[in-house]
Each structure stands twice: as structure tokens, then as C-alpha cells.
Design goal:
This protein is mainly β. Helix content is 0%, strand content 55%. It is globular, with a radius of gyration of 14 Å.
Length: 119
């Protein structure tokens, strides 16, 4: 599965952004897909989970989200979204989309999209 994020940018504190992650290839083989974010000094392995959604629609969010973000997907378009509202400067990070397969195989990652929240 190939993943391509878009939608990052610079926004003022309190603003909103919507990230998108378009999947191509074996998109029907995805079990769980979601978002991590990586701040300077973190590696991908130590980055924190933002949110994920499973093949049957179950969702989960990091504790820091506090009801500000919503994960969703358009199955017909093979696209994952992350609607972020009430953004804070501490949300500044590179946001990575990922996908885990239903069967064997490793995790796929997108290239990342930068989100910068100014105070």
C-alpha cells in the first residue's frame, strides 16, 4: 500500500486543518490506518499515536486530543482524513499516515506532512 498525505500547513492557535491520506495499491487489504506525529528529537518509533480507525470503523485517539480531532475515511476514495480543530502550538509536528495490513506484511507509511501552529 502506498500512502500520500496532504493538507498540512501553518495555522494560528485556535485554528483548524484537515489532513488527508490517499491510499493506493492494495488499499482493500488495510486492517487499521491512522496518524502518528513526530516532533523534533523524536524518531518514528518514539512518535506518538494521534488516532486510528480499524477496518470495521472503531476509532481511538491519543489522550492529548481531548475531543479536538476527528478521524474519518472515505472508503470509495481510499482516503483517510484527520480533521483538527482548536489547534495548539504543541500540536506542531510532522504528521504521518500509516496502514497495517490484514494479513502478513509490514506497516506502510506516508512521507509525512508538516503542521505548524503559531501562537
Amino acid at each position: 500500500v502506498q500512502l500520500e498525505e496532504s493538507g498540512g500547513g501553518v495555522v494560528q492557535a485556535g485554528g483548524s486543518l484537515r489532513l488527508s491520506c490517499a491510499a493506493s495499491g492494495r488499499a482493500d487489504s488495510i486492517h487499521t490506518t491512522g496518524w502518528f506525529r513526530q516532533t523534533p528529537g523524536q524518531t518514528r518509533e518514539t512518535s506518538e499515536i494521534v488516532s486510528y480507525i480499524t477496518w470495521n470503523g472503531a476509532t481511538s485517539y491519543g489522550d492529548f486530543v481531548g475531543g479536538r480531532f476527528t478521524i474519518s475515511r472515505d472508503i470509495a476514495k481510499n482516503t483517510l482524513y484527520l480533521q483538527m480543530t482548536r489547534l495548539k502550538p504543541e500540536d506542531t509536528a510532522v504528521y504521518y499516515c500509516y496502514a497495517d495490513p490484514k494479513g502478513a506484511g509490514g506497516r506502510s507509511w506516508g512521507q509525512g506532512t508538516q503542521v505548524t501552529v503559531s501562537s
